[in-house]
Design brief:
The complex is a heterotrimer of chains A (393), B (186) and C (98).
Chain A: E1 4-8, H1 9-19, E2 24-26, H2 34-45, E3 52-54, H3 59-70, E4 76-80, H4 82-87, H5 89-97, E5 103-106, H6 122-125, E6 133-136, H7 140-154, E7 163-166, E8 176-180, H8 184-190, H9 218-247, E9 254-257, E10 264-269, H10 272-285, E11 290-295, E12 297-299, H11 303-310, E13 315-320, H12 331-340, E14 348-354, H13 363-379, E15 386-389
Parallel strand pairs in A: 2-3, 2-4, 4-5, 5-7, 6-7, 10-11, 10-13, 13-14, 14-15
Antiparallel strand pairs in A: 1-8, 6-12, 9-11
Chain B: E1 5-6, E2 25-26, E3 34-40, E4 51-57, E5 72-75, E6 94-99, H1 104-111, E7 116-121, H2 123-130, H3 137-148, H4 153-163, H5 166-182
Parallel strand pairs in B: 5-6, 6-7
Antiparallel strand pairs in B: 1-2, 3-4
Chain C: E1 33-37, H1 47-51, E2 57-62, E3 65-71, H2 81-85, E4 91-95
Antiparallel strand pairs in C: 1-4, 2-3
The chains are: A alpha/beta (393), B alpha/beta (186), C alpha+beta (98).
């Protein structure tokens, strides 16, 4: 009988990581991820988790430690966000380049300046080109479940790419929600066997890791990473399907509500997806043909699956909780527009930029967003390509 | 089926607070109660005014936004009155439960005009008597249980026993019971 | 000139599975000057070995004592640190004749 408990997002990460039997943890505290590492520290201290906790002096070191540890075949974990993720930026590319199956929780927080500790996707969005798989959780149950799936995906021999599980700062990290936990045995069976990496560093089998590649070979290594990302597009749905079977909770690359006959569909990442779905339900009761989609996998971008899901709509509203300064629109908007550029059935796509620095998106604003979409659907024109919701002029 | 519900009085983000319940831990073997308990305007330090929100429902809660029209407001630290807009958005006929030495009438005057009912309990005194430390959360839970009947005293006690052990658990239960008895304004 | 391999043929993640592969790269042809040890002057103190940034000095050790010091010309890049550090000036940099 599965245990049901109230957990905050941070605690959920820690409990899941404990059940994944990690071997090495190295993390530097940063609000709102601190509780993850504190809780894991408690588990290690009281013997519930047999892991090496390395107390590092910065996030840069944290990722360096776990990357190297992962190459020994150990299961590793780290967590950070915002300035911390920015600080480990150079190592992000290295971790992906050496194909270390590191799993990292990113407690999505706004980047300074100005200093802000609240939910915002600019930190993980800044890392979208780094060769990390990116998963975004909508609620605490998903946070918990995605940690298991992250290890399953990252350690798959066709993938071997580091994976980040993103959870909104405070909105999920410090929000207590009902979580149904996996039994330890079930988790153990689901997870792949160790070693996590196919050529573990060992004194018996010495090898060179992280070598130099001049212009005559660098490009080829990058193609390997791209190939791994493409293979991940197959591996991820399979990992999710298997998880659905063992947990009894349905998982797919996105969670869609009422999209089959919707005129307007919003596509969001993270907790806002829940708010949009809740409001969509209300509007459906009033007869409006709206739908919502919460995208769980952002990298690799599930192009084919999204094309299938969204092409029937008249209007797609991409919801970006980040600003790509100087670009035509936010990252999700640009990805969706590129997706549909050559398509036969091309919905009108507009961008909604919201929630920066933890600015709350209220159900009333969500309703206005759907109404905006319906307006576009009716007129066939987009009055404002990028609409900034919730900001004061 | 019972669903115990209590506040974790350790590792709060703040000792001053505004509206809502700061932290709640809800555990149910039949898993039919969905809580969402969140923190707004959080700070990295103790002592800052903080607003916490709690939604309770029989259905899964999908909204991840703040609460702007609460039914109930619990003020755990009375110094926020006059500093934070405690009753802003409170529904008509709503309830305000305040940790205060003063009477409900005096506090109601401080809170200003509005269609709401005020209850007070001196949680500070109870906390200092029982714990010797200013942990006001659990006594306020007792008051909440008495005024609103959202949760029964039994459920709270069960939850406390599950979350805390030994002496700490008993002290929390004593504090909860005292507040339950001493609520004014009923 | 070996044919360059495509990305499907190379090991993943920049790993080189053959251990000690760097040893096989001849870096000794970068020199202009090469160090020559006068073994009569050499006191076998080993300082050149410790200071050589490239590990291109080899020691022959018997019973815990150094009995001979030699230059590994396959790898030595001719930086002359050994000449500078030798306390008895037993090492001289000599122009490389190719």
């Amino acid at each position: 009988m599965a245990k049901v408990i109230g957990l905050t997002g941070d605690e959920a990460v820690a409990y899941a990581v404990k059940q994944c039997d990690v071997d090495v943890i190295a993390a530097y505290p940063i609000t709102p991820q601190t509780v993850i590492v504190e809780t894991l520290g408690e588990f290690v201290a009281n013997g519930e988790l047999d892991a090496e906790m390395v107390h590092v002096e910065s996030e840069h070191s944290a990722l360096s430690v776990v990357t190297a540890a992962a190459l020994t075949g150990a299961r590793v974990f780290t967590a950070t966000c915002s300035q911390g993720l920015a600080l480990m930026f150079e190592i992000l590319y290295i971790t992906s380049g050496v194909r270390a199956p590191v799993v990292m929780a990113v407690a999505n927080r706004a980047l300074s300046a100005p200093i802000n500790i609240h939910a915002d996707h600019s930190d993980s969005m800044g890392a979208r080109d780094s060769g990390w798989i990116q998963l975004y959780a909508e609620n605490v149950q998903e946070v918990y479940d995605m940690i298991f799936m992250a290890y399953k995906i990252a350690e798959n021999r066709d993938v071997l790419l580091p994976t980040m599980v993103c959870l909104d700062g405070f909105t999920l990290t410090h929000t207590l929600e009902r979580v149904e936990m996996l039994d330890d045995e079930v988790a153990k069976k689901y997870l792949p066997p160790k070693p996590t990496y196919p050529y573990p560093i060992s004194a018996e089998k010495p090898a060179t890791y992280g070598s130099l590649a001049l212009p005559d070979y660098y490009f080829e290594f990058k193609m390997q990473q791209q190939d791994a990302m493409n293979k991940a597009k197959e591996v991820i749905p399979k990992a999710m399907e298997e998880f659905s079977k063992v947990s009894g909770r349905e998982y797919d690359q996105f969670k869609a509500y009422a999209i089959e006959d919707a005129d307007v569909i919003t596509v969001a990442l993270g907790s806002t997806g829940g708010t949009m779905r809740s409001v969509a339900r209300e509007l459906r009761k009033q007869g409006y043909k709206v739908g919502s989609l919460t995208l769980r996998v952002y990298r690799p971008f599930p192009a084919e699956a999204l094309m299938e899901a969204l092409s029937g709509a008249k209007v797609i509203l991409a919801m970006d909780r980040t600003l790509s300064f100087g670009a035509i629109g936010g990252p999700l908007f640009e990805d969706l527009r590129t997706l549909f550029y050559d398509a036969e059935k091309r919905p009108l796509i507009a961008d909604i930029v919201y929630g920066l620095g933890g600015r709350d998106l209220t159900p009333a604003e969500a309703k206005a967003i759907f109404k905006y979409g319906l307006e576009i659907a009716k007129s066939g024109r987009i009055p404002e390509l990028v609409k900034y919701v919730g900001v004061r002029e | 089926m019972a669903w115990p519900w209590w506040t974790r009085s350790s590792n709060c983000l703040t000792t001053s607070s505004g509206c809502g319940i700061e932290r709640g831990q809800i555990c149910s073997s039949n898993a039919s109660i969905w809580p969402r308990d969140a923190l707004d305007k959080a700070r990295d330090r103790r002592g800052a005014p903080v607003t916490g929100y709690t939604r309770i429902s029989d259905e899964p809660i999908e909204i991840h936004s703040g609460i702007y029209n609460p039914d109930i407001v619990v003020v755990i630290d009375p110094t926020v009155i006059g500093v934070s807009p405690v009753t802003q958005g409170l529904k008509e006929g709503g309830i305000v439960i305040v940790n205060s030495v003063e009477t409900p009438q005096t506090v109601a005057e401080k809170l200003g005009k509005g269609n709401f009912k005020v209850y007070t309990v001196d949680a500070t005194k109870i906390a200092l008597e029982v714990f010797g430390r200013p942990f006001f959360n659990t006594p306020m839970l007792g008051a909440l249980a008495r005024v609103t009947k959202i949760v029964s005293l039994n459920s709270i006690e069960e939850a406390i026993r599950e979350r805390f052990k030994g002496d700490i658990a008993e002290k929390n239960i004593t504090a909860v019971r005292k507040a339950y008895e001493e609520v004014k304004g009923l | 000139m070996s044919k360059l391999l495509g990305w499907r043929k190379i090991p993943i993640g920049t790993i080189i599975l053959e251990a000690g592969s760097t040893f096989e790269v001849r870096t000794g042809d970068w020199r202009t000057f090469k160090p020559v040890i006068d073994h009569n002057k050499c006191t076998r103190c080993g300082l050149c070995y410790y200071y050589c940034p490239d590990g291109s000095i080899t020691l022959e050790v018997k019973d815990g004592k150094i009995v001979k010091v030699d230059i590994d010309y396959y790898h030595c890049k001719g930086c002359a640190i050994c000449e500078g550090i030798c306390p008895v000036k037993a090492i001289t940099m000599v122009e490389e004749v190719k």
